[in-house]
Each structure stands twice: as structure tokens, then as C-alpha cells.
Design brief:
Blueprint: H1 3-22, H2 24-32, H3 37-60, E1 69-71, H4 73-84, H5 86-89, H6 93-117, H7 120-126, H8 129-151, H9 162-181, H10 184-188, H11 190-205, H12 231-244, H13 246-258, H14 265-285, E2 290-292, H15 296-303, H16 308-323, H17 325-331, H18 336-356, H19 369-382, H20 397-400, H21 403-417
Length: 423
Amino acid sequence: MNAHVKTGVASLQWFFFIFANTIVVPVSIGTAFDLSSAEIAMTLKSSLIITGIACVLQGVWGHRYPLMEGHSGLMWGLFLNISASAAALNMDLQTIGGAMATGIIAAGLLMLVMGGLGLVPWLKKIFTPMVMSVYLFLLAIQLVIIFFSGMLKLTPSGGLDIPVSLFSVAIAILVGVLKVKGKEVLSNFSILIGIVTGWILYRLLFPVEAMPSSENAVFSLFPLGQPNLEWGIIITTFIACLLNMSNTVTAIQAASSFYKEEPTNKQFNRSLSLTGIYTVMTAPLGLVPYAPFASSLGFLESTRIFDRRPFIIGGLLFSVLGLIPAAGDFFATLPITVGNAVLFIAYLQLFGTALKSLQGTEFNSNTIFRIAVPVLVGISLMTLDPTIFSTLPIFLQPLISNGLMVGVLLSIGLELFVRWEKV
């Protein structure tokens, strides 16, 4: 394939990868927090513009790797968990959203200060390789659960829409087969092929669901709620944002291995500074905070295209999408079930990245607890209904009900306080 053609097609694939990872987040959050269609359209438009710019700046000045800067999977899960727990917390959604905004702004400012003062080396002492392995395992599991449930469409009565769900499964199988059995070009562009093929066939076979039109977007600050001092929500959100910094360490460290180089402290510090700026910006816009996508590692593993240029071009195209209402509305017709089906396969690669991170680590009947406890406790909490924790103090409920956060915190504690080399 001609080099320019390959760059163009790879840019388009990055564009669709960023799009599929982004489009569902503001819509799901807006629905969870009972926003109007005009407010959801506004958050969606803001998300498109900022995400594209964030990717380009990270690729050009920040960490300088092809790693998507997008809405954090950890924070997305936290938003959905806490909004679903509103009744158990005895709070209205606007109060919850406002308290989360307070915690996000505080954490974003701290990230900016840490990046500016060059404190990422201290951060790396907390997020050790074992902690990052636990994080990758739990993130892969959380995202795969989200995308698996997202590709199975439900009817208004709550039952399974069998035709659409089977179609999504077929697209997932197609992408998997192309990745594993396809020749180099088919394998490298399996994600793009899956999205485009699935989109066209879906439009031919099923009615297209209406998405909020960006032309009806109504701008307002803090659409999820005005900042307040509900300390339980603030502390939980603040801790989650701090744990979210592990994305910076994990993603950059893992991406550098593709290039057989060691990333510099300047790369870490510049990346964290940018993420701090984006995080502060998300609160007044009602968006999920940003982070370098550790899950981009699965995309890179799938495509084996490590050139930065397609990533930067894809990010630029994505920002333009948010500036042109007609274009944004057109691409918003991409069926969410198709996007989820393709991402489900892409993120299976993230589980492989987690396994690779353990290479060279030996476990015995005692040291196995080093990874088994945080990973299995985290998975166990992911399967529980948050309402069962309603008898706990209100400031603990949002934290304890989040399996990813608890698992990572357990791992940090085990690494800090147990001398595993002597166990």
C-alpha cells in the first residue's frame, strides 16, 4: 500500500476509534443525570471539540505518543455508579453532579501543579509496575463489561432485542476474524472495516435511532449541577481523579515499549499538566474528566501502526467534526451497538497488555495474593448492586461500590506495606 494512502486510511481509522470511544460517553452521562436533549447536544458538541484538541496537543507537545486523550473509563464508571446510587445516597442528581464538579476542579488543579513542578517521579513510586498491572486488568474488565452490555440492545420492555444483538455479535466476530486471520492490511485496519461495514449494514437492516442534534445545543455552565460541599461525593471524586493519574503513568510507560525507549520525566510532566487543564475544563461543561487512554494500547496492539501522524490527523478531523453541526449530526448516526461491538474486540487486546505487564514476575502460594486480592476483590465489587452499601456512612458508599478504585487502592496498600521479596 502506498505510504500516503496508508497514512490517510490510518488517520481515518484513528478518527473512528476516537469517535467510537467518545460518542457514547456524554450521551450516557446526560441520560444518567436527566439532562434535556438540548443539554446533551451541548455536552456532545463540547466533547467532540475538546477531545480532538486534547489528542493533538498530547501528540505534538505532551507525551508525544499516539495515545488517545479521552474521557477516562474509571471516571465514566464512577459517574454512572454514583448517579445510579442517588436514591441510596438520598440526594438529587444535581447535588451529586455539583459535588463531583467540586472534586474534579480540585483534583485538576493539583494535577496541573504536580505536572508544573515536575512531581511525576514521585507519582511513579506510588503507581508501581504491580499497581499498574492491577489497574490494567481491572480497567480491561470494566470496559469489556461496559462494551459487551452496550452491544446487546434492549427493547423498551427491558428484554433483549435479538436481531440487533445478534447483528452486533456478528460484527464483533467479523472484526476478531479479520484481526486474527486477515493479512497484514486487513488485520491492521480490522477496526475501521468493522465500523464502516457494521454502520452500512445496520442502516440497511434496522431503523436509525435519533441522536440529539447539535443545532439545538444550548450552552450552560455546570449542566450536571452547581459546585457544592457534599464532602462524601467530593472526597470520592477527588480520590478517583488522583487514581486517574495512573493512566498517565501506565499508558506512557507501556506505549514507550512499542518504540523500545524509556520515556523522560519531561514527557510525564507535560502530559500530566495537559490532563490537569482538561480535567478542570470538564467540570463546568458537564463532561467526564480526561486521561491518556491506557486502552489505546489495545488499539495499537490490534493495528500495529505506531506512526504519530495518523493519530494527529485523526484528532484534527475529530475537532473539526464538533465545529460543523451537519457533520457531527451525520456521524452521530453511527449505531452505538456497532461501536460497542468493535470496541469490545479492540479492548480484548488490553487484557493481553495486562498479562504482558506481569512477564518476569514469579508467584508462589503466598505472593499470588499480591495480584489476586486486588483484582478479584475489584471484580467482585463490580458485580454487586451499589444499593447494598446504603447502610454504610454516606461518604464511603461511592468509594466502596467502585470495584476499580477499591482494587487499585488495595494494590497500592499491599505494595507500600508488604515486603513481598521476604514473603
